[in-house]
Amino acid sequence: MSAASPTGFEPPVYPYERLAGARAAAEQLDGGIVDLSIGTPCDPPPAAVVDALSSSGAERGYPMSVGSARYREAAAGWMARRLGVEIPATDVYACVGTKEFVATLPQWLKLRTPDRDTVLYPAVSYPTYEMGATLAGCRAVAVPMDDRGGLDLAAIAAQDASRALVLWVNTPGNPAGQVEDLAAAAAWGRSHGVPVCSDECYVEFTWAGPPRTILQHGADGVIALHSVSKRSNLAGLRAGFYAGDPALVHYLGEVRKHVGMLVPGPVQAAAAVALDDDAHVDEQRERYFDRLERFREILAKLDVFVSLPAGGFYLWAEVDDAWAFTDRLAREGGALVSPGEFYGPAGAGHVRVALVQPMERLELVAQRLGLS
Domain 15-44+280-368 class? Predict the structure, then answer.
């Protein structure tokens, strides 16, 4: 008697695992791989942050799920200084990095609003928005992008809006680097009774004008999501926070207490130090902008022409065959990039280049390609 076929959920292959062949080819070159596929910071965090991590004495007890007063005050102070919004520290809650928040939000909102079942997210975006809906047993509905690369809110069907648990906005966007019209997003959410969650983890690296947050348009019905991973080269700490509508923030905080979502005490102490300091971020901005400009020149010599993004540290380049181009860069230049289909079907025909490696590694790629 044959075994029954599984009918439950089977997780898809994690996108970056599909790069194993290109990765192996790049690793064979003298000097090794130059990994530009994942946005993992490589530059050092401030020494004071590392010192705080090892000297807080907070490792002995359980940390508060919502975050320590020190951490929440540091986050509120950062938003006031850098984004010009005054949010009470009591309306700022900690999260374990931001990816877990993105992935788990739909299930918490579904419990709160069981008659709704749809997650709206950008058609070209970080894949966890869609996966969070899938893991919660919800409908994932991609919102088309308009001619400027932002969300086409007018394209959201009325039946999808009426079923929506949340509208995700990501600005500056990953992978394309667009800056969204956050006033329009907030207004759309309020007019349809749909919470809007704005993922703003790249906000410190806004190149087109000043940094923006959805909270500049009021807190009613919206949440802004932030992280120290990108701004402070602290992805390994897993420290983020969310702020906004007090009712939403407090509801999520209470649910997450029961799940045991706790940012470790020493991590909170270190992240607070990072949030208090802006000088290291200004230095990092210069590094990323210089790398964007240099690799844009390298791509142009390969007849791939791309504009600088409005924000973020990725180049989103249109190519004829993304997988063939990825393979060529890996085999000839030792650089690993990401095919655009990782960020949704609408991203096909593009590659994303994460400028996280130091300039000397980028110059090594140019040298290997005969372009230096």
Answer: alpha beta
